[in-house]
Amino acid sequence: MSNRLANETSPYLLQHKDNPVDWYPWCAEAFARAAKEDKPVFLSIGYSACHWCHVLAHESFEDPEIAELLNQYFISVKVDKEERPDIDSVYMAVCQAFTGSGGWPTSIFLTADQKPFFAGTYYPKTSRHGMIGMRELLTVIHEKWTEERESLLQQSELVLRHLQKPESTAAPDFDPIPLAVQQYKRLYDEKHGGFGRAPKFPTPHNLLFLLSFYERFGDKTCLRMAEHTLLQMYRGGLFDHIGFGFCRYSTDSRFLVPHFEKMLYDNALLILAYCKVYAVTGKALYLRIAEKTADYILREMVSPDGGFYSSQDADSEGEEGKYYLFTPKEVIDCLGKHVGKSFNRHYDITEQGNFEGKSIPNLLNSDPVNSSFEACLPKLREYRKQRYALHRDEKILTSWNGLMIAALCALYLLSRDTRYLDAAKRADAFVETHLYDGDALFVSFHGQKRGVLGFLDDYAACIYAQLALYKATLEEKYLSWAKVLCDQAVSDFADGTEGFYLYSDRHEELILRPKGTYDGAIPSGNSLMSCNLVRLSILTGEEKYRTAAENQLDFLSKTAAQYPTGYAMFLTASLEYTIPPMQVTVVPDPQTDIGQLPLTLPPDTVIRLVEEPTEEYKLLNGKTTYYVCKGQSCQPPTNDLGHISR
Q1: Which of 46, 121, 210, 523 could hold 53 in an S-S bridge, CB 3.0 to 4.6 Å?
Q2: Average pLDDT per block of 10 residues along the chain, 646 residues long
Q3: Which of 470-495 are b and which e, b meaning 16 or more Cβ less than 10 Å from the residue's Cβ?
Q4: Which residue, 442, 410, 437, is CA-closest to 424?
Q5: Residue spans of beta strands (DSSP E) within 175-329
Q6: DSSP element (H, E) containing 472
């Protein structure tokens, strides 16, 4: 018999609808029942592609004994972090305060008024290896709730007071950029690429900042760190060499063994990073990697209506990575003896294997430029697909779609392959049709239903997408919608001159109202808004955007003081504001097709279209005219961009 999650649209919640646990979605009814029955709330937060969420569900939430304890002594609430980033943000901060770290699944025990008194992540069913088991934990929490409740509530108040303290800030004139560069150099892994020790996350926004810093200051170490990291991530098993696309992170320092789930946002940000390094170096391999990643998205992650799905699971038939692994015999049976043996050598597929007795295809010991086996890949992809099933989370998220739209626009501008721009436009039309009602954005769409009202991240990413579409097409409608959304974001989420809140006054009020300034796997909404405001101030020349951009940069400069490498997207925006990219204003003649303009310009270039000649921007010789500014100086108008295209 299904529980209350059977009526939800979230794929993650639906995965738990047949649990014997009497789950509630996050709702007032659950907390009202907790108050009435004087029970604590057990809050479990996760997402559809999360491997350890599946492990916890199989070990505990599908287990009748654990379900009985939960149903008897607790009110159980299940949350999809991707649909409710507000709840996830608040209680992830709680988890970090209690344990010093965080992650998913997140397991929180609350009072009926939503105040946390204990927090953790994954727990096995029974205690092992020094880790308390779910069975023992539930029993202890029940006993303490019954006999020592006052001490639990005191602990809750201490944690909340700690989380409500304002963030430490630096002096107003503090510049985090030089310190960030120093920290990146100190953390850099000279041998394997990446930063710090395993696990290693891609965090492409770090690499985008380093490449932008190199462009402006010529720091070759920054270029080397970014380029080597991007190359090693592709060569390792983090990249799926058979089906393309990147997995979520590497469990080792070499980028060989990934955590096998694939997330839309990772692949969007990585496309942007590979486009950037291609633009900086001119090396064709990087454009090819970006195209492969985009081709994976267009092949496997697009809905019939054009929206992009969220993720693919790490697990197949209950085993992590099973879908992606090969033995030499499988490859030979599929490709034939001669080609199969050569393929195995090239992709390090061996009898002993490199992961649990089988092999993750990789190029760590091979030439990454060698493309002689590309023709073999469709056959292996089809074989792999028939061999095992791979779950896909078909929820369509506004914020992640915004990032992918921007990535495909960047790729189109470099490759001029219209497939990428067409896909970006279709996805944008999907967002406008299904995730916007003329007054507000919404978080998600699944099962023909929209999720809750959109949060700051949704607005920030959607604005970012509109600015990318405007640059790729010069169609005024995209710039206009970017301005509308930006004005809505300022109205609904801004805290005066002190950044943006994650949720607005129109949302449900939680025990905390976070701002979310730190860039994790995805740039924060505040960081993306700094990029948007800087770009809008340059594009429009409007004072309100310039002032808002300056306020946002000042705010983030202070909050970034403690750990500037955690604010890479803001650092990139700060560079763009301080040392503006080349700006090109286009005045087309009446016969010019805007879509055919020869705008082969550096990726960071700000391009603005003046639809008709004005007193300030006139036609030269009656032909399409370009007004080009670099730094603080402008060049004479010209009809030919050829001599200034780089």
Answers
A1: 46
A2: 85 92 95 96 92 90 94 95 93 87 89 91 86 91 92 86 70 83 96 95 97 96 98 98 97 95 97 97 97 98 98 85 94 96 97 95 96 95 91 95 98 95 98 94 94 96 97 94 97 95 93 92 96 96 96 94 93 94 86 65 81 86 87 83 59
A3: bbbbbeeebbebbbebbebbbebbbe
A4: 410
A5: 249-250, 258-259, 262-263, 311-312, 315-316, 319-320
A6: helix 456-473
| Residue 50 amino acid letter | C
Looking up tokens 């709702």 gives 27
Q: What is the pLDDT of residue 170?
A: 61
Question: What gap in Å lies between CA 551 and CA 499, rounded to an integer?
Answer: 8
Cα 321 from Cα 324, distance rounded (Å): 6
- Distance between CA 584 and CA 625 in Å, rounded? 10
Quote the pLDDT of residue 264.
Answer: 98
Q: What does the pLDDT read at residue 208?
A: 98
Helix (H) or strand (E) holding 447: none
> Contact 198/251 with Cβ under 8 angstroms?
yes
CA separation for the pair 462, 397 (Å, rounded): 11
pTM for this model (two decimals): 0.92
- CA pair distance 434, 420, nearest whole angstrom: 21
Question: Burial of 352 by CB count in 10 Å (0-12 exposed, 13-18 middle, 19+ buried)?
Answer: exposed
Residue 194: per-residue pLDDT: 97
Q: Is 542 helix (H, G, I), strand (E, B) or coil?
A: coil
Closest of 87, 88, 109 to residue 98, by C-alpha: 109
Radius of gyration (C-alpha) of the chain in whole angstroms: 26
Per-residue pLDDT at 308? 98
CA atoms within 13 A on the CB side of 525: 26
| Extended beta strands in 226-272, E state | 249-250, 258-259, 262-263
Which H or E run contains 41?
strand 41-46
CA–CA–CA angle 520, 522, 526 (5° rounding) = 85
Do residues 40 and 34 make contact, with C-beta atoms less than 8 angstroms apart? yes
**pLDDT at 202 (0 to 100):** 95
Choose among 612, 615, 638, 640: nearest CA to 627: 638
Q: Can you read off the two tokens belonging to residue 298?
A: 């267009």
Locate 494 and state its tokens: 């801004």
Work out the angle at residue 109's Cα, subtended by the Cα atoms of residues 107 and 115, and round it to the nearest 5 degrees: 125
Q: Which of 586, 560, 590 is nearest to 573 (CA)?
A: 560
Q: Are strands 258-259 and 249-250 parallel, antiparallel or unpaired?
A: antiparallel
In this prediction, residue 34 carries a pLDDT of 95
Strand order across the 444-446 sheet: 396-397, 444-446, 449-450
Q: Residue 1's pLDDT is what? A: 63
Q: Is 560 strand, coil or helix? A: coil
